[in-house]
Amino acid sequence: MDRLPLLETPRLRLRTIERADVPALYAVFSDPQVMRYWSSAPMQDADEAIALHDDIVAMMRDDTLYQWGIAPRDGDGLVGTVTLYRIDVAHKRGEIGFALGSTHWGRGYATEAVGAVVAHAFDGRGLHRLEADADPRNAASLRVLEKLGFVREGLARERYQLYGELQDSVMLGLLAPEWRARSGRG
Questions:
Q1: 167: helix, coil or strand?
Q2: pTM across the whole model
């Protein structure tokens, strides 16, 4: 696969991440506010954003990871990403993750963008289950996931070691029939 399907919402376009988007990737993934509850530290230089872009393209071509860039419909610049990864075709499951530039928080963009990828995963890819994890202190991300119907299924204690601390992770899951019932698609 060379390009991801374009996913559109009322306010956003989720599209393939291009080489020209490297500065936007760096802006998102170097922001300490965005990365506070991420599983890795903020990027330190633009070369890391180039490497991320190259990894995204390689994994898309290998059919192992799909990372969309989030762009407002009234512009083309990326403000974040949504990722569908660790897809297990045999078990019809995958994982979802997202990052949104801090200057775009509080507008509902994350809920809208993640919702579009959830719809694609269940309706377009035929998956049955999606999983996500979030630091229990990341109330905003947990709200996004729970608003879309994800259910807290457990706590992975001391899962990550960042910033000189051990961080827990809330594990969440969403089943296709639950999502379809909530969204009126079933």
A1: strand
A2: 0.94
